Amino acid sequence: MPAPGYAAIGEGSAMEGVYQYGDEGKAAPAAGGYQSMPGNVKDAVSAMMKDVKIYTEPIQPGSEMSLKDRVVVVWESARPWGEFFRPSAMNKPPAGEMGARFSHNVETFFYNYVLLAVLFLVSMFFIHPIATLSLCVCGAFAVYAYVLHPEPIEIGGRVLETPAKHIAMAVLAGIALLFGHMGGLIVSLAVFLMVVVGLHAVFRDHAEEPQV
């Protein structure tokens, strides 16, 4: 039976590929390894991410999971925070192991990164409330239109099909970008995730045994 914090709700087959472990229970590096980093940053990221397999059912708009189940799965799929922040597991990776380490850690700690992004947005509400509210309104509309009601919805006697939903979402996002200054918040979130995910995924030793 999986330890608390490691399990996720849903069919077992859906979780296959989230964590890759070798015969001895240790994390297995990506096939082939990585001997050198490409010179181009885009190529480097693509090379590290090509073998990553992540269970994304809870955050897919078209998923049939309920909103409550999505929240529970995201929370329970995150690894224990003591394991995430363990100082003894942080070290500089050998050059040939960097790609495999990055790929494994993105798979393993993906939902920890998701929760950190949510925490970042909550903290930004006290710094940029209008931008945060604009993003929340867009997010709430997306959840309502694509998650809670993936089928056509009726508003004011008119039925909104999927193309109409896309148009409404685009108009709302455009207003939020122009008047809610949401663009700056999105850039800040992207930079935050690049720094946090990049540093943690590279320097967190994936070969260390997790402490259950």
TrEMBL record:
Stretches that traverse the bilayer: 114-147, 167-197
Taxonomic superkingdom: Eukaryota
Gene Ontology CC: one annotated term: Golgi apparatus
Subcellular locations according to the entry: Membrane
Pfam entry (one): PRA1
Similarity annotation: Belongs to the PRA1 family.
UniProt protein name: PRA1 family protein
Organism, as annotated: Porphyridium purpureum (Red alga)
